[in-house]
Amino acid sequence: MKNNAAKEKTYSVGEICSLTSVTRKTLFYYDRIALLKPYDRVGVQNHKVYDGTALERLRRILLYRDAGLQIEEIRSILDGAQDRNAVLCRVLERLMREAEQKKEQIARIRVLMKE
User: Fold this and answer.
1) Helix ranges restricted to H, 8-83
2) pLDDT value at position 2?
3) Residue 40: what pLDDT?
4) Which residue segment(s) compose the domain that 91 sits in?
């Protein structure tokens, strides 16, 4: 275990999933793509554990994901690779274009329904 482990609370995979309503599959996927790495691995079975910093990062990931950001956009914000507001402006523009496309599709469906 890492040096600060005695001072800082750690969470098992199950606890993290319970606290955030994330599935194990999603948590393991984020680990595999290096978006959210466990704090440490413990025990004979090498179980993953997460610290408070990882829990907060996961909460930010979920917040951004629910707002419509893609994985690489989330990563660039959280890792400081790009300015958060610049990324959010690009996402907003993309979502607005997508919303306009959906409006057009809905209008086409309504026309088809009247035929």
Assistant:
1) 13-20, 24-32, 52-66, 71-78
2) 53
3) 84
4) 84-115
Let me know if 17 is exposed, middle or buried by CB neighbors in 10 A (0-12, 13-18, 19+): middle
CA distances from 74 to 29, 33, 92, 96 (A): 14, 12, 14, 18
- Tens of pLDDT, residues 27-43: 999 999 999 998 888 77
Overall domain count for the chain: 2
Same domain as 65, residue 45: yes
CATH number at residue 71: 1.10.1660.10
Give the tokens for residue 79: 């890792």
- Assess whether 75 and 91 both reside in one domain: no
pTM: 0.81
The pLDDT of residue 27 is 94
